[in-house]
Amino acid sequence: MTAPAHHIPEEILVAYAAGSLPHPHAVVVAAHISLCDTCRAALAAHQAVGGALLEQESGEAVSDSLRARVLDMLDAPLPPEPTPPKRKGIYPAPVAELLGPDGQVPWKSLGFGVKQALLSEGEEGSLRLLYIPGGRAMPEHGHHGLEMTLVLQGSFSDDEGLFGPGDIEIGHDALEHTPIATPGVDCICLAATDAPLRFKSLVPRLFQPFFRI
Ligand SMILES: [Zn+2]
Q1: How far is CA 169 from CA 2, 6, 64, 76, 93, in A?
Q2: pLDDT tens per residue across span 142-172
Q3: Is domain 1-213 annotated with CATH 3.40.109.10?
Q4: Phi and psi (nearest 5°) for 159?
Q5: Å from CA of 61 to ligand 1 middle
Q6: pLDDT tens for residues 31-58?
């Protein structure tokens, strides 16, 4: 796999390092990090700085020596990266852990060859795998809140660009888009959402209660 082109935005990486992302989104970030040397190194740097800041007593102003130490860490070469955890086929370890021991995906058809597998669902949002045949469009939708999509196989394109294996797309409130899977290879994505997507056409809206999109 070539190196991903679309990475985790800084503020989301910081939230992840602090443990404050909702669980479904944290899984997507962890899956991307397991595929991406760049973000793995950025996370290691954040964790080193965060650890140093925790060492100081709370309420105390940052001392000159601590500030110097943190700046040194940011400049210092990074420690050797741990080996990325084992993946199962196209599924990175954080996703493979959510599949059965046999690695089978509980796909459910949404019609027209589109399938989804709900991996987790709760107050923090939901996590699903989506399967979109090459050349097919996902139903057009807008977002409430934060949606994060990681490509595991194939690619899709939308107004924001082309997203291939390992690429992560962050959907926000204002984004309305129609991702289309690139013809030739079926596209499989991991998607975290923190509120129901608003599908615009009638049929998917009717499906919504059944498939919990
Ligand atoms: Zn990355």
Answers
A1: 17, 7, 39, 30, 20
A2: 556 778 999 999 999 988 899 999 999 988 6
A3: no
A4: -55, -25
A5: 33
A6: 999 999 999 999 998 888 776 666 654 5
Report the SS3 class of residue 167.
coil
Q: How far is the CA of 56 from the centre of ligand 1 (A)?
A: 30
| For the chain, percent of residues with pLDDT exceeding 90 | 44
Q: Two tokens at 111?
A: 């019609």
Q: How far is CA 62 from CA 18, 48, 70, 71, 73, in A?
A: 19, 16, 10, 12, 15
Average pLDDT rounded to a whole number, residues 99-125? 88
Alpha-carbon distance of 184 to 30, in angstroms, equals 28
CB–CB of 193/210 below 8 Å? no
pTM flag (> 0.70): yes
Measured in Å, residue 37 CA sits from the centre of ligand 1 at 7
Q: Tell me the CA–centroid distance for residue 39 and ligand 1, in Å.
A: 4
Helices (H), the chain: 10-17, 23-35, 37-55, 64-75, 93-96, 202-211
